[in-house]
Amino acid sequence: MLQLRPLTIFLFLSLISYSGDASPDDVVRSSCSHASYPTICLRTLSSYKGPAKTPSDLAQAAVQVSLSRARKLSDYLAQLSSTLNKGKGRERTALTDCVEQISDSVDDLSKTLAELKHLRGDTFQFQMSNAETWTSAALTNEDTCLDGFEGVDSKVKTDVKKKITNVARVTSNALYMIKRLDESRDKPRRLKP
Q1: Is the distance from CB of 135 to CB of 62 less than 8 angstroms?
Q2: Taking 50 as the threshold, does the pLDDT of residue 8 lie above it?
Q3: Angle 180-184-186 from CA coordinates, rounded to 5°
Q4: Does residue 151 come out as left (phi exceeding 0), alpha (psi in the -120 to 50 range) or beta?
Q5: Dmax of the chain from CA atoms?
Q6: Nearest-angstrom CA–CA distance, 97 and 102
Q7: N or C: at which end does the chain have fewer Cβ atoms within 10 angstroms?
Q8: Beta carbons within 10 angstroms of residue 14's beta carbon
Q9: Whole-number Å distance between alpha carbons of 105 and 82
């Protein structure tokens, strides 16, 4: 009787998950299974409007979701900051810093998405390094924003923390998808030489 080794089974299942016959839902499900936040990953990428057939498609979709949420958060924080001009000193300072940090996150995620949309075979590794660095920086900015509210006890902190945690989780999943693309041997066929 033929015995299959675990590595052989893994490779076989990997090939099936990337075959042209796999449905987009199957590709998303198998890709999200090891993300930092698999349930959020599955929910956000399953409902994403656009192609999700390759690791490149998934990485772009994940970054787009993160960028969209970061932009909404940035708008929310800017509006909140303008209404809290007379707030408590520490809370106001934390919020002002947070507005800047999330704005930086939006810039980093925008650069990441642009890089992922123009991958080239001869510069693939360099571009992937850039994408990982910028997405990591965006995640750090989000974490730093939360850190600024340490010692502040208010409804503002609670609201901001909830919204930032949501953005940080989708950004963490986006970073996972980028790393997954970088590690993948199935580099996008659309790469230019």
Answers
A1: no
A2: no
A3: 135
A4: left
A5: 77
A6: 9
A7: N
A8: 14
A9: 20
Token match 């002002």: residue?
A: 96
Q: Which residues contact 67 (CB under 8 A, 6 or more apart)?
A: 106, 109, 110, 112, 113
Bridge partner list, 120: 192
- What is the pLDDT confidence band of residue 93, given thresholds at 50, 70 and 90? confident
Query: What pTM did the predictor assign?
Result: 0.80
Lowest mean pLDDT among 29-43, 108-122, 158-172, 178-192: 178-192
Alpha-carbon distance of 24 to 172, in angstroms, equals: 21
Return the residue matching tokens 């299959």: 4
User: Per-residue DSSP letters for the chain?
Assistant: -----HHHHHHHHHHHHTSTTS-HHHHHHHHHTTSSSHHHHHHHHHS-SS--SSHHHHHHHHHHHHHHHHHHHHHHHHHHHHHTTTS-HHHHHHHHHHHHHHHHHHHHHHHHHHHHHT-BGGGHHHHHHHHHHHHHHHHHHHHHHHHTTTT--SHHHHHHHHHHHHHHHHHHHHHHHHHHHHH-SS--TT-B-
CB 125 within 8 A of CB 132: no
